[in-house]
Design a protein that fits this description.
Oligomer: homodimer
Distance between the termini of chain A: 35 Å
Low-confidence stretches of chain A: none
Number of helices of chain A: 9
Radius of gyration of chain A: 20 Å
Helix content of chain A: 40-55%
Largest sheet of chain A: 6 strands, antiparallel
CATH topology of the largest domain in chain A: Beta-Lactamase
Order of helices and strands of chain A: HEHHEEHHEEEHHHEEEH
Mean pLDDT of chain A: 88
CATH class of the largest domain in chain A: Alpha Beta
Strand order of the largest sheet of chain A: 6-5-4-9-8-7
Structural class of chain A: alpha+beta
Largest interface: A-B, 71 and 71 residues
Amino acid sequence: MGGQAARSPEFVQSLERGLAVIRAFDAEHPQLTLSDVARRTGLTRAAARRFLLTLVELGYVHTDGRLFSLRARILALGYAYLSGLGLPEIAQPHMEALVAQVHESCSVSVLDGDEVVYVARVPTKRIMTVGISVGTRFPAYATSMGRVLLAAQPADRLADYLATARLQQLTRRTVTDPAKLRAILTKIAAQGYAIVDQELEEGLRSLAAPVHGAHGAVVAAVNLSAHASRGSFELIRRELLPPLLATARRIEEDLRGPS
Amino acid sequence: MGGQAARSPEFVQSLERGLAVIRAFDAEHPQLTLSDVARRTGLTRAAARRFLLTLVELGYVHTDGRLFSLRARILALGYAYLSGLGLPEIAQPHMEALVAQVHESCSVSVLDGDEVVYVARVPTKRIMTVGISVGTRFPAYATSMGRVLLAAQPADRLADYLATARLQQLTRRTVTDPAKLRAILTKIAAQGYAIVDQELEEGLRSLAAPVHGAHGAVVAAVNLSAHASRGSFELIRRELLPPLLATARRIEEDLRGPS
């Protein structure tokens, strides 16, 4: 999970810096000047310029001479991962059936370091939708999918996580005490699902179940999220948990393939 | 649009090679050995090893010591582009409404070099779904969205494309004659939509409309695809074209923002 280790002698620093330049762009900063990129990456202007011009030559970045922005080619990098994973394609029809049944948004995510990363999402048809898409990241400790995935970690990795993760008070309900979080994760591992009540964002409840791969290990989590206005915590558990668990089982059956 | 130009003296070759290592992985090759990566990138084994180990240290690649595979962190690279684009989020609810109305899959794509890249997709709820997701690429000339996007290119870029693109016979119907393709694109520019009848794949018809951004330029294309079993070319045009054009207009209105 986190931690900046010493770099091996074979480490290619130019690659690290080039990838940092790509990651300098985000939803709030889709267009950056050379100075912006230098400041956001900690590179000198001369170095930032070399990496930006290289990315322009390779077709990953567009520039009008002053402003730089990412181009669609950049999607090819992440697409290799998503298409190789297979999971989103297998999960999608089951997620769609679940959303049609319960009218709440369904997502599948995997753990990346201390965060969950969405790899598939089926939003419900509401006027107000949350701005979550494939690639969105949230801190694992405050989300139902993150807790399901943390609960499935080997003991040593979990201990390392609890010792090092920064548990921030995101809402007044967020659990930030490592000992309390460990107790919650133990319970989740035993019961096979997690429910999180407004710990990531006020008004947002979600429940998640683990998805086991063909070899039995937890490979992902699947969730449903619901606005608090849908009803009480207990009502959500009663209405949404059984179909969610059934969906997780169907995805697992497809992952195992024809027997 | 394609073409390998001479590299500038400031070009960072290590970054190009590192990105090539990432792109060596794909749906058919989600796990690669060091030798595989060297062969697929044209790098020496020693160089491939340095880049792979760097990507492992940075958390983008996983290895068991022998096999290498991409990790979820790689999505962060493409996510910056998608979230900065704004378009998928704006288009999604309109695409969902269209799919609910016509029961065919809807996609939005942009042009990247000679290919279209999917940036949003709402599949229809069918048992058989096509394995297309965000990041999927197709050659522009054989797809309805590609033709809409090509038809909106400045004359010099279009001439360059027609002079250099490799127009391959993907089905027995694919138009591969540049002069004929140019005539088709002229017609598309005039009529404001494209219909492609089984030129990318036998049995697959699709129609696409341009999406104009706030400043009037074509920023994307939106399409519907339908299996040939749905009915004749004319039936598809009559049933699907009006709702598709209406959807494109609604997306454009939202892109312009409150007036």
